[in-house]
């Protein structure tokens, strides 16, 4: 039972190794102390029994004795500690400054100090430069950029005019007088602007779809066939029915159409169907048009309860149908009355003859 300890097992392994190589152990004497120290490290903590120590060779016993009795490296030198404790620290105010005994909070000791002049606006400046580079469109041909921006100006103008007319109507409702336009004039102008904006939006959406037909005919990015032709067909098929919708529904539908078409154009640019600058160019134009639609919806919503609803095309068609039926009914009634008179006249003539 006494020999079933970790120290005894380590000792037996070392003894077995020395027995296998007796010449090297007894003659060379050059066995590495580190090797024996590693094998006998547990002996310094768990002392073996005396009869086990007696079985060691002289070299093993010497190594073991040196391992047990050697001075540890972390032994405290009390004399040196007392000498340092009794030393008096001399003041040196000329070497002390506001930063001589501090270091950055997020840094490590002995690391160089952070730069003193840190630009706190660097992130914002970077974002502003990114926006400038995006809106500058340096890679876009100047003619396309200029004409494209000019093309969205009518859409933006109708949107701002809608907001102005709504303001005039609200101002007249609050004060009783209009600023420049009378309430009736502002309302009439508003009814003219709404179909103009919707019709112009349908034209723009159709034009954006037709661009893909031109790219297909030019063979840009290869000939894609029906996949690219479908873009030019679906765009006007979605755009033109909006002129038959109420104003709010038409504007929302066109907003969704512009957004979906921008996504399609972005994907087309990514796969090489359009020039590399086309998606950025479309982003600027779509942003302006989308903002115009939102502004128009806001202006229209401010006067929704104060402005009469302008009859849409469908309403006009229904009214025309109803009026036509009414007119036809009146004509038939007149024909019947005329026929009745003629019959009565014939009866009178026949009775007179008799």
Briefly characterize the structure:
The chain contains 13 helices and no strands. Helices cover 69% and strands 0% of the residues.
Molecular structure report:
This is Mitochondrial inner membrane protein 1. Keywords: Coiled coil, Membrane, Transmembrane, Transmembrane helix. Residues 321-348 form a coiled coil. The chain crosses the membrane at residues 198-217, 229-247, 280-299. This protein has helices at residues 6-20, 22-28, 33-39, 50-53, 58-69, 78-86, 122-136, 142-175, 183-218, 226-239, 247-270, 278-302, 313-353. The chain is elongated. Helix 8 packs parallel to helix 12 (278-302) and helix 9 (183-218) runs antiparallel to helix 10. The protein is mainly α. It has 13 helices and no strands. The model is unreliable at 17-46 (pLDDT under 50). The N and C termini lie far apart (160 Å). Among the domains are: 6-68, no CATH class; 137-310, no CATH class.
Shape: elongated
What is the string of helix and strand elements? HHHHHHHHHHHHH
Kindly name the structural category: mainly alpha
User: Mean pLDDT, nearest integer?
Assistant: 74
Work out the helicity level: 55-70%
Q: What's the total helix number? A: 13
Low-confidence stretches: 17-46
Using DSSP, what is the number of strands? Answer: 0
Largest sheet: none
Query: What radius of gyration results from the CA coordinates?
Result: 50 Å
- For the terminal residues, how far apart are their CA atoms? 160 Å
Note the topology.
Elements (H helix, E strand, L loop, with lengths): L5 H15 L1 H7 L4 H7 L10 H4 L4 H12 L8 H9 L35 H15 L5 H34 L7 H36 L7 H14 L7 H24 L7 H25 L10 H41 L1
Helix pairs in contact: 8-9, 8-12, 9-10, 9-11, 10-11, 11-12
